[in-house]
C-alpha cells in the first residue's frame, strides 16, 4: 500500500501577485513569482513560455541581473539565491545564504553583491543586508557573509527602494522614513507626526519609490496621500509636497522609466498617473477589477504592469491602454459554490472575482473565462457588504446553469436571487433565461438538477433553511407573438418545518433525497410523493449522495457529529455505518467509487470506498496539513490504466480538492511531467522576429517556408516502434488466454503490427505537431489505405486454395487493426492540437 | 478594462393582462358614444363621423331584422317580423322590391356573390332564394327542422351559402343542386354563422361555443372555442381576416387570432351583446346591446405625430458610410466597440455624483411613471453604502419630495424592504430639525399615520391566517393517513 500511494501535487493556481513582476530588458517577457516557481510570460501573447523550477519553498523575490540583462536572480524562503537564464529556462547558479530570504534587490553600482531582507533574531525584526556573491565556476556556491545596511525595516519589498544612481536606499516603516547613503555610510531618519488626533491618525507609510534620475523619494500613506520628498540629504532642510487622490491606502508607487510621471494604485482599482508629479495633470485607468497590489515598469519604458489581488497581471501600454491580461486562478476568500466541472469544457468552475464564476482549465493552468453572474458595478471599498454568489449547479449536460446570489446586510434583511442560464450554442456562452427574486425566505443550502435524459423536462431542486424545498421546472412561456421558455415553481415540499440542509437526485433521476436536519426523506420525482424517511439521530446531515452504477440502490449520508451512514433503498434499512468525521464527500460520476475526506489530528485523511462495501478500497493518511474544504472528481478524457490495484479509482477520473488556504491539490501517480510543450517553444522562436511593417509582407513567406521545412524534417525523422501504444499488442496482452485463437495465427498479426511503423512513416507523428501537419498526415494515410486495398483486390482472385485465403484474411485483419490504430491516434491527438 | 455596468433596474411581473400588439391595436378606440335607437320598425343609417342618423327607412309594419348592405353598398335588404323581405335603394326612400313568401319572421337575409340574388331564412323553417330583377322566388329549402336564425353567403361562389338554425345544424346549400351539400352538427342552437373570405372555413356560434369548421374537408371540426360563459350571439371578422370577434350575452366581445385561435383581446360592455359589426379597416366597432343601446367606437388614427418640426438629422449616407466595404485580403480589421448609451442617473453614478443621481430619479416625471427606477437607485446607493450621504443635506423642498415618494410607495410590498430602510435613514437624519418647517412636519405625520395603518392591516391579516390555519388543520386531520401527514399539510398551506 505504501509503495502504491499517490503523491499529492499542487496543480497550479499559485499566487502571481505576491511580488512585483519584472519585465525583461526588451519588454518582450514578463517574469513573475508563482509559488515555488518563477514563470516567464510573453507580453504579446500572454502565453507562459517557461517555468523556472528549482526552489523548494516560496519564491519571494526576483530581479534582473544588472550586469547581464538576460539573467535573473531569484530568492526564496529556502535560503538560496538562484541565477537563471530565463530565455532558455536554465538554472545557472545557486548561492546558499542560510537565512529565510524575504525580499531581493539589486542595483548596478554593487556589482557582485545583492541586497536581501532577512530576519535574524526576533521574529519581527527585519534587516536589509548586502550579500556578496562569489565568482566561482561551480554551480553551487556558498554566499559571502551578509553585511548590514539597514536595521528594523518592514519585510515587504514595497517599503524599500534604491535611488536611481544607487547612492542611497530608502526604507519606510510605520511613521518614519529612513535613508541610508552609501557614500557617507550614514542614515537620515524623517518622522511624521503620529499623534492621536484624527488628522494624522493615518499617516503610516505604506510604500516607497525613488526617482530614477533626480534625488526625489515618493512615499504612499495609509490615508491615501502621496508625499514627494526632496532635499533629504540634510535632516533639517528637507521639503515635501503632497498629492492626494486616493481615498484609501496607497498600495504601490512606481516612477516611469524616465521619471517624468509617477504611477500609483490602491484599493479603488484605478491606476493613477501623475504627470510631472503635479496634482493637476493626472490620468486615470479605471475599473481594473481588483485592488492593485503592485506596479512594475519596464526598463525600456514602453510597458508597465499592475498585479492585482485577484491573481491577475495586466500589462498596460504607455498610453494607459491595457494590452494583455495574465489571469491565474482567482483566489476568493471564500469559495462558497464549491468545485464543479463544466460538462462541456471539462473546466473547473468555482467562485472567481466578486460576483463572477470562473472557468479554469486544469490542463493549461489558465483561466478560460469569467461569467458575470451579479451583473452590477463592483464598488471596491472596505466595509461594504457585497452580493455573494453562494450556490451554482450545472444541469442537463451543461445546457443549464443555476446560480444563487445573496446579500445580507442586517439580520433579517436578506436579498436572494436565483438565476437560470441557458447555454447558447451560437455564442458559446451562457445567457440569462430566468431571474427569480426571493426564491426562498431564507438562505438556500443546496441546489441540484435532475440528471435525466434529453426528453425529460429539465428539473431543478432548491433546499433552503426556511424549511422548504422547491422544485422548479422549465415551462413553455410562448404566445402567438414569440417563442419563449422559463422556469416556474412546480412543487413545494417540507417535512415538519425542519430546515432543509441538502438535496440530491439519484443517478436515473427517479428519486430525490432531501435531508431535513437529522432526517433524510426520499421523494418520488414523478409525483412528488414522500416515499420513506431515514433517521439516524446522529446530528444534522452534512453530505448526501446516491451511489452510482451498480451501487445505485445505496444512499450515503454524512452527519456533523461524525457518522457515515449507508442506507439500502430497496430494503429501506441501514446497510452499514461508521464513525468518520467527513468534511468532503464526493461521488465519482464515472464509477461506483466515493471519496471521503476526514479531518484528523495529523491533517486530512482520504478514504475511497464503494457504497456496497463498508471496507475502504484505498486510504491515504494526511494528504495535507489543513482542512479540505471542497473536492471534485474530474472525468479524464482518456481512461488511464494505472498498474497499481490500490489506484484503480483514479483510472477514469481525477480527484481535485481545495484546502482552507485556497490551494488546489490533486493526486498524481507519475513523476512531475514536463509542462513546457514544443508548441510554446516554437512560439518563442517565432517571437524573435521583430514585428515591423515588413513582417507583414515578408513574415508570411518565411512562415510558409518554415512549414515546408518542418514537414520535410518530419518525413526524415525515424522513430522506433513503441509497443505500449499499439492496440493490437495491448489487446493481445489483455485478452484472457482461453478466448484467444491459436498462437500460429496470432504470430504474423503480432509481427505485422510491430512492423507498421516502418511501413507507414506517417504513423510516427509526434502528438505535439501543429494542425496543418496533421491534415497532411490524414491525407497521406488515406492514400496508403487505398493502395494496399487495390493490391489486395488484385491478389484475391489469384489465390485458389485455403491457405491463401487464410493469409488474405490475416492481411485484412492486420489492415483493420492498422486502420483502427490510425483512427485512435487521430482521436488522441486532436485534443492536443485544438487548444 | 470592463466598462461601467449600468444599474440593474428590478422589473416586476405585470399582473393581469399582458400588453401585446393586439391590446394596443384594439385599445386604440376612443371612448364609446352611446345613444338609443328609438323605433324598432325603422332602419337608421348613421354617417361615419356624425352621431345623428342621416337616413331612416320606416316602411316596416313590424320589427325589422338584419339589415344588410350589398357588397357595392348601393342596395340594402332587411327582413321583418311579419315575414316580408324588403329591398331598398340607398338613395331612395320607398322599397325597391318586396319579396313575399315567408309565413313567419325573417331573421336573416344576405346578398349572394353575384349581387343579383337574395338569400333569406325565416322562423317557418325555410330558406328561400330570391331573384332581384324580377322579384321572384327561385328556390325554397325545407331541410331545417327549427327556426333559421342566421345565414351567410359565400363571397366567392354565387351559388353557395350557409344557414344556421335552432335545430343545432349549420347547412351549406348549393343553388345548383336544390339541396344542402354539407351539414354540420353544432350541438347547440346556432346563433350566428360566418364564412371566411376564402370560403374554406366556416365559423358557427351557438350556446357558449364558437366552432370553426373546415369546409374543404367536408365539414370537419377544426377547433371549438369556449371563452364566453353565456350564449355567443354574434360573430365578426376583422377586415384583414387575421382576427375573429365574438360577442356574447356575458357582455364581452372577444378577439381571437385566426392562426392560433387564442384570445388576444377582450372588450367589456355594459349590457348583453346581441349584434356586432366592424367597419372597413377596423375603423369603427359597433355593438348593439339588450338595453337598447348602440355602442360605437372609433379607432384613433395612428402615426399622426410627425407634424412637430424636427431637428435635422444627419443624412442616411452618414450612417452607412463604409458599411458595405468589402474586406480585402491583406486588410487588418480593427473592431471598435459600439458606444454604450447610459441613462442620466447612470452617468451620475459612474462619476460617483450620488446626490445628483438621487435628485434625478426623484423628479416627479420619474417617480410617478417609473417608481421601480427610483427604488432601484435607492437600493444601489444603499448597496454602495452611501444612501445616508445622498439623503443628507437637503432643503425643505427636496426633503418633501423624498417624503412624498416614501408616502406614495412605502406600503407597496415590492418596494417595502428598500424604502423602509430609506425611511429610517431619513428620520435619523432629519430628527434634529423637526419642527422647523410645517410642510415637512405634516409629511412626517402622514408617514407615521401610514405606517400605523399598515401595522393594523398586517395584524388583521395575521389573525385571518391563524384562523385559516386552524381550519386547515382540522380538515387535514379528517383526511390524512399517518404516512403522508407532512405532505398533505404542505399542499394545503402552499395553496
UniProtKB/TrEMBL annotation, chain A:
<dbReference type="InterPro" id="IPR001680">
    <property type="entry name" value="WD40_rpt"/>
</dbReference>
<dbReference type="InterPro" id="IPR053826">
    <property type="entry name" value="WDR75"/>
</dbReference>
<dbReference type="GO" id="GO:0045943">
    <property type="term" value="P:positive regulation of transcription by RNA polymerase I"/>
</dbReference>
<dbReference type="InterPro" id="IPR011047">
    <property type="entry name" value="Quinoprotein_ADH-like_sf"/>
</dbReference>
<dbReference type="Pfam" id="PF23869">
    <property type="entry name" value="Beta-prop_WDR75_1st"/>
</dbReference>
<dbReference type="GO" id="GO:2000234">
    <property type="term" value="P:positive regulation of rRNA processing"/>
</dbReference>
<dbReference type="InterPro" id="IPR057644">
    <property type="entry name" value="Beta-prop_WDR75_2nd"/>
</dbReference>
<keyword id="KW-0804">Transcription</keyword>
<dbReference type="Pfam" id="PF23769">
    <property type="entry name" value="Beta-prop_WDR75_2nd"/>
</dbReference>
<dbReference type="InterPro" id="IPR015943">
    <property type="entry name" value="WD40/YVTN_repeat-like_dom_sf"/>
</dbReference>
<protein>
    <submittedName>
        <fullName>WD repeat domain 75</fullName>
    </submittedName>
</protein>
<feature type="repeat" description="WD">
    <location>
        <begin position="52"/>
        <end position="94"/>
    </location>
</feature>
<keyword id="KW-0853">WD repeat</keyword>
<keyword id="KW-0690">Ribosome biogenesis</keyword>
<feature type="region of interest" description="Disordered">
    <location>
        <begin position="760"/>
        <end position="812"/>
    </location>
</feature>
<keyword id="KW-0698">rRNA processing</keyword>
<feature type="domain" description="WD repeat-containing protein 75 second beta-propeller">
    <location>
        <begin position="339"/>
        <end position="662"/>
    </location>
</feature>
<feature type="compositionally biased region" description="Acidic residues">
    <location>
        <begin position="765"/>
        <end position="787"/>
    </location>
</feature>
<dbReference type="GO" id="GO:0006364">
    <property type="term" value="P:rRNA processing"/>
</dbReference>
<dbReference type="GO" id="GO:0003723">
    <property type="term" value="F:RNA binding"/>
</dbReference>
<keyword id="KW-0539">Nucleus</keyword>
<dbReference type="InterPro" id="IPR036322">
    <property type="entry name" value="WD40_repeat_dom_sf"/>
</dbReference>
UniProtKB/TrEMBL annotation, chain B:
<dbReference type="GO" id="GO:0045943">
    <property type="term" value="P:positive regulation of transcription by RNA polymerase I"/>
</dbReference>
<feature type="domain" description="U3 small nucleolar RNA-associated protein 15 C-terminal">
    <location>
        <begin position="324"/>
        <end position="471"/>
    </location>
</feature>
<dbReference type="InterPro" id="IPR015943">
    <property type="entry name" value="WD40/YVTN_repeat-like_dom_sf"/>
</dbReference>
<keyword id="KW-0853">WD repeat</keyword>
<dbReference type="Pfam" id="PF00400">
    <property type="entry name" value="WD40"/>
</dbReference>
<dbReference type="InterPro" id="IPR019775">
    <property type="entry name" value="WD40_repeat_CS"/>
</dbReference>
<feature type="repeat" description="WD">
    <location>
        <begin position="99"/>
        <end position="140"/>
    </location>
</feature>
<comment type="function">
    <text>Ribosome biogenesis factor. Involved in nucleolar processing of pre-18S ribosomal RNA. Required for optimal pre-ribosomal RNA transcription by RNA polymerase I. Part of the small subunit (SSU) processome, first precursor of the small eukaryotic ribosomal subunit. During the assembly of the SSU processome in the nucleolus, many ribosome biogenesis factors, an RNA chaperone and ribosomal proteins associate with the nascent pre-rRNA and work in concert to generate RNA folding, modifications, rearrangements and cleavage as well as targeted degradation of pre-ribosomal RNA by the RNA exosome.</text>
</comment>
<comment type="subunit">
    <text>Part of the small subunit (SSU) processome, composed of more than 70 proteins and the RNA chaperone small nucleolar RNA (snoRNA) U3. May be a component of the proposed t-UTP subcomplex of the ribosomal small subunit (SSU) processome containing at least UTP4, WDR43, HEATR1, UTP15, WDR75. Interacts directly with UTP4 and WDR43.</text>
</comment>
<keyword id="KW-0677">Repeat</keyword>
<dbReference type="Pfam" id="PF09384">
    <property type="entry name" value="UTP15_C"/>
</dbReference>
<protein>
    <recommendedName>
        <fullName>U3 small nucleolar RNA-associated protein 15 homolog</fullName>
    </recommendedName>
</protein>
<dbReference type="InterPro" id="IPR036322">
    <property type="entry name" value="WD40_repeat_dom_sf"/>
</dbReference>
<dbReference type="GO" id="GO:0006364">
    <property type="term" value="P:rRNA processing"/>
</dbReference>
<keyword id="KW-0698">rRNA processing</keyword>
<dbReference type="InterPro" id="IPR018983">
    <property type="entry name" value="U3_snoRNA-assocProt_15_C"/>
</dbReference>
<dbReference type="GO" id="GO:0005730">
    <property type="term" value="C:nucleolus"/>
</dbReference>
<dbReference type="InterPro" id="IPR001680">
    <property type="entry name" value="WD40_rpt"/>
</dbReference>
<keyword id="KW-0539">Nucleus</keyword>
<feature type="repeat" description="WD">
    <location>
        <begin position="225"/>
        <end position="266"/>
    </location>
</feature>
